[in-house]
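INFO batch 0412 | record 1 of 1 | parsing
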Amino acid sequence: MTHIVTPYKNETTSKKEQVAKMFDSIAPKYDFLNQILSFGIHKGWRKKAIQLLQLQKPKTILDIATGTADFAIEGMKLNPDKIVGVDISEGMLFLGWEKILKLNFQNKIELKLGDSENLPFADNSFDAITVGFGVRNFENLEKGIQEIYRVLNTNGILVILEFSKPVHFPIKQVYNLYFRYLTPFVGKLFSKDSSAYTYLPESVNAFPAGEAFLIILRKAGFIETSAIPLTFGIASIYNAKK
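INFO prediction complete | emitting tokens
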């Protein structure tokens, strides 16, 4: 059984509850810290992930672990009829809703409080599903992927953007130093919740990246699975079809 990494080591609550608490805690500084810690590179990754859906022309999109809704907002470039963003953190959704209102996207984007492992939607509800940096936070990864498969339409496309682990020298060494020491330091400096930025490298390290994750997708029933490494393997886009 895979060891479950949680943000708060001394608490006995479930990973799900701890992740919700963590994101509620860091929500006000989340976008700012994301920008600093990724040097803005994450925006390009997100654009690339959404571009993979252009040929599909999805009319209904579900964005799981939507956070402050950046992925859902990027999805508007596909001109869909409806985007639904789901997250377990009310604090993150509140900030996401503020962005949506500012951009006047409220007629197209809906945000819901919800659990990715128990999605409140019927089978075959969406043409496309996106997840940006969220699958490693699932308490039960396999169950979360099965739920995604269930609510995705037949021939629907799944696009997941997630951190991975570089394998080549010297990127691997630089990345490990940066993630292990600098990320928690910067997180502690700007956020009242230092555990969140210690949890980040730990959760990335525990995540079954690359082929191991593609096996999980195929086991759930997905076909045409592929992994595209980004920026020396710091992140990957996983692509799959139902």
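INFO post-check: Residues 24 and 90 are 7 Å apart (CA to CA).
INFO record closed
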